[in-house]
Specification:
At1g16640 B3 domain; 308 residues; single chain
Length: 308
């Protein structure tokens, strides 16, 4: 009973304290502030509607032309050629050349050739024989033709050493003379060491092909004597030179002619067109030039035979 009386007295004291605190809150106005805050939090918030702008797919309308004069046509400097290419099994056009490159060809695609490494090297050897047989003693060099020389672009770069020694450093007109004495004008650009204008007409007139070797002999300060060695003739004749004019002798001349052949350029041209050759396992020599175990064994056997 004593415990129940203590609990009741404690509960009554707590209730009186709560009532006193409520009166104090009412006197201070704190209850009204709390009610106002609860009303604000419970009030429904209005969500703003987003207006999405639709993209207009209207076509752009150009301003109409005011002048009655016909519009000037833009000139096209590309050679338009209608070439029928053979179709493959699936109906696609097949060609050994790039279509973008073929559109800039100055000759029909049927006449475009691609020389092999053997044909190019054989033509260079024939040209070297022809150059060594020249009797005039004038400076000369050999140039192996590639596609950019004879089919498109038509820029012929000359050996740098030859140009520094024998040709002017400015832009001059040069005459190209063939073996029959026909002359063709060309433009030599000294700062770039090459022939530009006029070389296109010469290459197209003689139908130079990829792999042909051309010997240039400087007979005058601004005049070249040009000898053409065709790769097709050398491959069929087996390094036999075709008939030439009296300027070339069939035998080697005793008086050495001044030959300014750029051997480095010839080697780089051949390396550029050379096919990679796979090395066999049973090679006789190693990379450093030392004999392999197979050659060592054979030398030992030879020594044993000599001792016996």
């Amino acid at each position: 009973m004593a415990s129940d009386a203590k609990a009741n007295s404690y509960e009554e004291a707590r209730k009186q304290r709560v009532l006193e605190n409520k009166r104090r809150f009412e006197d201070l106005g704190i209850i009204n502030i709390s009610k106002g805050l609860t009303d604000l939090t419970k009030s429904p918030t209005k969500t703003k509607e987003r207006h999405v702008r639709l993209k207009s797919h209207e076509a752009f309308v150009a301003e109409p032309r005011r002048s009655s004069r016909a519009r000037t046509q833009v000139p096209s400097y590309r050679d338009d050629m209608d070439i029928e290419l053979p179709r493959g099994p699936r109906g696609r056009k097949s060609s050994n050349f790039n279509s973008s490159w073929a559109s800039y060809l100055a000759r029909p695609l049927a006449e475009v050739k691609s020389a092999t490494y053997e044909e190019r090297a054989l033509a260079l050897r024939c040209a070297e024989k022809l150059e060594s047989n020249l009797q005039s003693g004038n400076p000369s060099f050999i140039k192996s033709m590639v596609r950019s020389h004879v089919y498109s672009c038509f820029w012929l770069g000359l050996p740098t050493r030859f140009c520094e020694r024998h040709l002017p450093k400015s832009t001059v007109d040069i005459v190209l003379e063939d073996e029959e004495g026909n002359e063709y004008d060309a433009v030599y650009i000294g700062r770039r060491s090459g022939l530009s204008g006029g070389w296109r007409g010469f290459a197209l007139h003689y139908k130079l092909d990829d792999g042909d070797a051309v010997v240039f002999e400087l007979i005058k300060p601004t005049r070249f004597k040009v000898y053409i060695v065709r790769a097709s003739e050398c491959s069929s004749n087996g390094e036999k030179l075709p008939e030439r004019s009296s300027m070339c002798s069939s035998q080697d001349n005793d008086a050495p002619s001044e030959v300014d052949n750029d051997s480095e350029e010839t080697e780089t041209t051949l390396k550029r067109h050379k096919k990679p050759v796979s090395k066999s396992r049973g090679s006789i020599k190693s990379k450093k030039g030392n004999p392999t175990p197979a050659t060592r064994a054979s030398s030992r056997q030879q020594k044993m035979r000599d001792e016996k």
